[in-house]
User: What shape does this take?
Amino acid sequence: MLNNYLPILIFLAIATAVALVLLTLGSTIGRFFAREPADRDKLSAYECGFEAFEDSRMKFDVRYYLVAILFIVFDLEIVFLFPWAVALGDIGVAGLIAMVVFLGILTVGFIYEWKKGALEWD
Amino acid sequence: MLVEILFYIFATLLVAGALGVITARNPVYSVLFLVFCFVNSAAIWLLVEAEFLAIVLVLVYVGAVMVLFLFVVMMLDINLAEIRQGFTRFAWLGWITALAVIAEITGVIWRNGLGGVDVGRGFVSEPANYSNTLELGRVLYTHYAYPFELAAVLLVVAIVAAIALTLRRRPGLKVQDISRQVAVRAEDRLRVVKVSAEKRS
Assistant: This one.
C-alpha cells in the first residue's frame, strides 16, 4: 500500500533538495559579492518609511478564539463522519444509529451555542 | 528496508523538532517547531499504513489546533523577561507533571504490554487496495460505539466550556438590527400634525 505514496516521498525529497540548494546558493553568493559593511538602516525594521511604532504583538479580542474553538469542534465532527460514510455499507443499521446519537449530542451543543449568541458578532 | 530507513529519518526529525519546541526562546518558534513535529508524526503514521489518521493529524492539528496555539501565543502579549522570571519558580510543578506522565506511561506498558503488537515480526505491507479508513469505520461505529459517543459528549463539553469562558455581552452597545430597520413603517417615525393657522394680528 505504501507504494501508492511513493510520488509524495519523491516530491518531498525534491522539495527539500531545492530548498537546501537555494539556501546554500543564496548564502554563498551573498558572502562573496555582498558590499561590506552592511548599512545599519538596511537591517532595521521598515514600516512605511518610519521606524516601527510599537511591538507587533498586541492584545486582541478573545472572540476570535471562541470562533476558532467552535470551528475545531465541528471540524472534528466532520472527521468522525468521514470513515462512517466510507464504511456505512458494512456496518449497517447499528452504525447508522450510532452516528444519529453522535450527531444528536452535538446538535444539543450547536443549539446551545446558537441560543447563547456565540455565533453573533456585535 | 526503505520503510525502516524512512522511519529512522522521520523519527530523528521528530525528536529534533520536539527538542526545538522546548528550547526555542521565542514561543512563536516553539509553535512552529510543534507544527514540524506533527508533520513528522503524520509521516510515521503513514509508514504504519494508518493513512486516515495521518491526514487527520495534518488537517486537524496542523490546520486548526496549531492556529489556536498561535492565537494564544500572540494574545498573551508576551514580555519574554517576565516569563523567564517565573521559570525557576514554577519548575518544580513542571518536573512533577513530567514525572507523573512518565510514570503513567510506564505503568500502562508494564501492565498491558504493547497491546498485542509483535514488535519482532517486522513490517508487513498491506496490498495496494487496502483502505485504512474502511477498517477504521468498520470497528469505530460498532465495536467502539460507546467511546465514540463519549467523544461527542466531550466535544459538547468543549463547546460549553469555551462559551462560558470567553463569551461576554457588552451592554449598551449600539448595533444595527437590519430586520427591524426594514420592517419600520412611516407612521412609526413620522407624525403629521395639523396646526390651525394663526390669525394675522
Chain B has a mean pLDDT of 86. The two ends of chain B are 114 Å apart (CA to CA). Residues 140 and 146 of chain B are 9 Å apart (CA to CA).
